[in-house]
Amino acid sequence: MILKSLFRTRNPSNMNYATMLNGNTPIFSQFGDNIYSSDVVQMCIDCIATECSKLQPKHVRLDKNDMQVNVKGSLNRLFKFAPNELMTTRDFIEKIIWLLYMNYNAFIYPVFEYKGPKGSRAKEYKALYPLNPIQVDYLQDQTGKLFVKFYFNGGQDFTLPYSDVIHLRKKFSVNDIMGGGLNGQPDNVALLKVLEINDTVLQGLEKAIKTSLSIRGILKISTMMDDEKQKKERERFEKAVSSGTTGILPMDLKGEYTDLKVDPKLIDKDTLEFLQNKVLNYYGVSVPILSGDFTDEQYQAFYEKTLEPIVISLGQAFSKTIFSTGEIDRGNEIVFYPEKLLFTNTKNRIAVADILGNRGALTNNDLLELFGYPPYEGGTERFMSLNYIHTSLANEYQMKRAGMKEREVDKDA
Question: Residue 192 and residue 34: Cα distance in Å, rounded?
Fold first, then answer.
């Protein structure tokens, strides 16, 4: 395994299983995949993962004026193109979302080294890897510190401090630590019922079509014959069918052919759409989003219902693990910027450029990037319309106007 030399493992000999509030032993096997044979399920998850892969993660810091400042460092270098040697940033995010929806849990391990003298050492990050374990155990040492033990398909296992692992959860409810159901696994019972019905319907359609194309009639043989004679009689009948050119089948007195009027009853369109929409609604993906033929309002609804909670979760989970309490207090955080999701068409980009550009919130290079053009030297300047003024100046202007009106009233009096 490529990660073997990167893990900082700890000997679990002096550890016990972590105490859970519900009394269960915190051992979680990974994770059912029987719903993923459904093409609709795969299309939904792929749609969500593909959209999320457009996110741009960045390490930012809030200055004393609460303004976000991009930080030059190892994290932004990794986030920009390749979080590890195997994946681009797009691949990395897509992989995380697939693992999250398949397992209802996703684990990411950040590889780092300490740099600098003791007392002022800082972490320099080397890579971030999504993990796909087959079993996860939670352990505690004698001081009560929580560890997580991962088991992988190759037979290897690694024990890591839980605080060093980024953990994303979906449907985090009845289990104390893991997402999903009580046992830390995907709770797909409700969805499986719909998929089973849908599969039964599809199998019925397949059989109905095959039946309508294959069975045409029954040959009744009037005399008593043994198996060998029946076989010969059937072969004689099939030969007569294949050689007939006039549409009239010659038969002798021993055989009688009865034509079957095959009329298979197919499931109506509304029922099929109802079953498909049950699956789509479960994942928060509508038909227009799935087909790519959506309006601005439909995509906005998809973003707010399905994508935005993931964006928020990613930022919070990465920030919680990567930064210490002191670093968070100093304004450090990881933000997954969704601008490539929100500005999906030229009309929206023009509206953003008009509103933010006219107020000096965007530089010329920001505006060029919004429309896919390269920056130019000196394009970091900001321009704003004279139709807008600072709020303090507006208050001063209104007060002066009020004073002028009072003087005019006094003169008239």
Answer: 9
